[in-house]
Automatic annotation (TrEMBL):
Domain Solute-binding protein family 3/N-terminal: 37-263
Signal sequence segment: 1-24
Organism of provenance: Gluconacetobacter asukensis
Organismal lineage: Bacteria, Pseudomonadati, Pseudomonadota, Alphaproteobacteria, Acetobacterales
InterPro entries: Bact_solute-bind_prot3 (IPR051455), Solute-binding_3/MltF_N (IPR001638)
Protein name per the record: Transporter substrate-binding domain-containing protein
Keywords, alphabetical: Signal, Transport
Transmembrane segments: none
An example Gene Ontology biological process: amino acid transport
Family classification: Belongs to the bacterial solute-binding protein 3 family.
Signal among keywords: yes
Length: 275
């Protein structure tokens, strides 16, 4: 069965993995090829990574990445809308085969699922309303803050609230998705949220939230990875090889400029990660 993957030109390392035959058949790699469909979990309320276009169809960088992966495997892509807070549970429960949803691979999350090498990197900024008086990360110490539950942005804010901001008055409200967080900020329920700079640019271009402003940078450069089930070594190695192929072929650059615009490509190495 793996010969069909190898023929696609990116599965060079798959056949070299020393996995007992009794476990090989359990890999999602074989399951997906046999089924003829790759089920990708994607967050669709976080443009330009994932969203619904004017025809109400899934679109965005992560959606295109999934479709590229399916094409290489010789199968159809099935985009499964997956809220940010349900990304890992959906993979564990086998409702999806792979998670392509701008997910940061942390040691804690690695106890539950396996993460690939980074396939994208996001610089993070503060989004607030015009006239809020917020212009730097330190200004958040006494503000009402919001974010999506279970994200690295949430973890950073909670860390600061328990550390250098402790006792200064900051509060935090968790939401189920980016749309809820955007609405909370628009309605004045929170003073600021953290978000990828590419998402903010998309919001600006859409004109949906004219009072939102970039209120400063955040000490977080988010390298995100593709997730597979924790014990699926074959699929993980294949995904890593696929990401490498996207990068060296120029396809990553093409997708980035399609969805994020011109400018320097993000650095996918750990050189950009703040300690």
């Amino acid at each position: 069965m793996l010969k069909r993957i190898l023929a696609a030109g990116v599965g060079v390392w798959v056949g070299a993995i020393n996995v007992p035959a009794s476990h090989a058949a359990e890999s999602a790699l074989d399951t997906v090829v046999d089924r003829g469909v790759l089920r990708c979990g994607v967050v669709l309320d976080s443009p330009p990574s994932g969203y619904r276009n004017a025809r109400n169809e899934p679109d965005g960088f992560d959606v295109a990445y999934c479709r590229d992966m399916a094409q290489v495997m010789g199968v159809k892509a099935d985009i499964i809308e997956t809220p940010a807070s349900n990304r890992i549970p959906a993979l564990v429960a086998k409702r999806i085969d792979v998670l392509i949803a701008s997910t940061t691979g942390t040691p804690q999350r690695g106890l539950t699922i396996a993460f690939s090498r980074p396939y994208m990197s996001y610089a993070t900024i503060i989004i607030s309303r015009r006239g809020s008086g917020i212009s730097a990360f330190a200004d958040l110490a006494d503000k009402r803050l919001g974010g999506v539950a279970g994200t690295t942005n949430e973890a950073l804010l909670k860390k600061e609230m328990a550390g250098s901001w402790k006792g200064k008055g900051a509060t935090y409200t968790a939401y189920g998705g980016d749309n809820e967080a955007f609405l909370a900020l628009e309605e004045g329920k929170v003073d600021a949220i953290l978000q990828a700079v590419g998402v903010f640019k998309t919001l600006q271009d859409s004109g949906m939230f004219p009072d939102f402003v970039n209120a400063g940078s955040v000490p977080l450069n988010d390298l995100v990875s593709i997730g597979v089930r924790r014990d699926d070594v074959q699929f993980l190695n294949w995904v890593n090889q696929f990401i490498w192929s996207q990068n060296v072929s120029g396809r990553f650059a093409q997708l980035y400029r399609t969805y994020f615009g011109d400018g320097p490509l993000p650095d996918l190495s750990t050189n950009t990660v703040s300690p």
